[in-house]
Specification:
49% of the residues are buried. It is built from 15 helices and 14 strands. Helix 7 (185-194) runs parallel beside helix 8. It starts with a helix and ends with a helix. It is α/β, with parallel strands linked by helices. Bound molecules: pyridoxal-5'-phosphate. Residues 115-117, 120, 143-145, 205, 209-210, 238, 240-241, 265, 275 line the site of pyridoxal-5'-phosphate.
């Protein structure tokens, strides 16, 4: 009997490039056909064959309290009866902005977008408008959405497909994107000296999640902060993954470092298409209609997206134990997996911070993209399919972080550890 998943994948490819609306979903890096999801609840996904999976993707982050979280669903349903979009401002947007400002440090003004891509693209434009400079620095393996300027050494999706330069991104655009290895402060200093007074911004994932989970080395972010202060460069923290996930105030709060601009996505929309960029008053005042840096969106601040995001963020803001619980669960998983791999003599490095974690098959530390790429990623393929067969849905790429959600119970974590125990390299 053939699987409904395979039937759907065959059909999807007739209509959609590669059968998917975002490349990583296609399982290219792990091989095999993707599964198609019918529904989700709490910590579980259900595919087209009604098979249940313990979910470690959480829609790449947003489902931090689990799928179909009741207060969010209720809020969406109520708002939907009042209309789905107006093209005019609403009080919901004020509430959302005020709530974000109360949670995140260092945000004086904030503008909503409909994706993390838009947020990063806009933040870069604002940084350029504010400084009057064009070039910027990004780090190899960091992903900041698919705007042209960022599609240079762009992390997970591109790495998975082995794409280095993207046809369609003009050389003129790519030339303004300077890249260095993550955690290499000296290389940044060198680039800044080489391009004195030409660099508008440094954009960084404060904890990287698009080459697996990679932590900033001690002093790395502090060093970037100092360079930016000294050289009139705008420091942009891309907190699309880390925002509201690592702490209420994201990585800025957890690591106690302030960026000049910060971008959000994923958790901020509770599963609806939402992004945002915000930061210091003087910089954000450049944004139209206050300033001349044009930025807009027909569906930006969409009422359904706003009520969904607001409801989720409000839950995160009022739940004092949440981040401690999530961290404890993730550490439990990390320790359990580490023990199993050691027992099996499979060399592994597990990176983890808060509810972000990734398993790299290597003897070495994994501190940047080159380290992640040098791991035994063939073994990851095998591990991924072993887990999938047992009803555990890991990110389908060794270059992606796993995201834990708080609907996961210790019983689910034990199942995950036990499933790993039956894996043979
Ligand atoms: C997902 C992601 C983006 C892009 O967000 P989209 O909503 O997919 O456009 C940008 N930056 C980081 C760090 C991300 O993880």
């Amino acid at each position: 009997m053939s699987s409904q998943n395979d039937i759907l994948f065959a059909k999807a490819q007739l209509h959609i490039p590669g059968g998917v609306n975002s490349p990583v979903r296609a399982f290219k890096s792990v091989g095999g056909n993707p599964i198609f999801i019918k529904k989700a609840n709490g910590a579980y996904l259900y595919d087209a064959d009604d098979k249940q999976y313990i979910d470690y993707i959480a829609s790449w982050g947003p489902m931090i309290l689990g799928h179909a979280y009741e207060p969010v669903i209720n809020a969406i349903q109520q708002q939907a009866t009042l209309g789905t979009s107006y093209g005019a401002p609403t009080e919901l947007e004020i509430n959302m902005a005020a709530l974000i400002k109360s949670m995140a440090p260092n945000v004086d003004l904030i503008r909503m977008t409909s994706s993390g891509t838009e947020a990063c693209m806009s933040a870069l434009r604002v940084a350029r408008g504010y400084t009057g400079k064009n070039k910027f620095i990004k780090f190899e393996g960091c992903y900041h959405g698919h705007a042209d300027a960022f599609l240079v050494k762009g992390g997970s999706g591109m790495a998975t497909l082995g794409i280095e330069t993207v046809p369609g991104v003009s050389e003129a655009v790519a030339n303004d994107t300077l890249t260095v290895a993550y955690n290499d402060l000296e290389a940044v200093q060198h680039l800044v000296a080489l391009h004195k007074n030409e660099i508008a911004a440094i954009i960084v994932e404060p904890v990287a999640g698009n080459m697996g989970c990679i932590l900033p080395a001690p002093g790395f972010l502090e060093g970037l902060r100092k360079i930016c202060d000294d050289e009139n460069i705008v420091l942009i923290f891309d907190e699309v993954m880390t925002g509201f996930r690592l702490a209420k105030g994201g990585a800025q709060q957890l690591l106690n470092i302030n960026a000049d601009l910060v971008t959000y996505g994923k958790v901020i929309g509770a599963g609806m298409p939402v992004g945002a960029f915000g930061g210091k008053q003087a910089i954000m005042e450049c944004v139209a209609p206050l300033g001349k840096v044009y930025q807009a969106g027909t569906l930006s601040g969409n009422p359904i997206a706003m009520i969904a995001g607001y409801t989720l963020l409000n839950e995160l803001n009022t739940n004092d134990d949440l981040y401690t619980e999530l961290n404890a669960k993730t550490v439990y998983l990390k320790d359990g997996l580490a023990k199993v791999f050691i027992d099996k003599n499979i060399p592994v490095t597990i990176n983890q911070l808060g509810s972000m974690i990734s398993v790299h098959f290597t003897n070495n530390e994994v501190n940047n993209f080159a380290d992640a790429a040098a791991c035994n990623n063939e073994l990851f393929k095998k591990y991924f399919h072993h887990m999938l067969a047992q009803g555990i849905y890991l990110p389908p790429s060794p270059f992606e972080s796993w995201f834990l959600n708080n609907a996961l119970r210790y019983d689910d974590l034990d199942k995950t550890i036990n499933a790993t125990a039956t894996f043979t390299a």
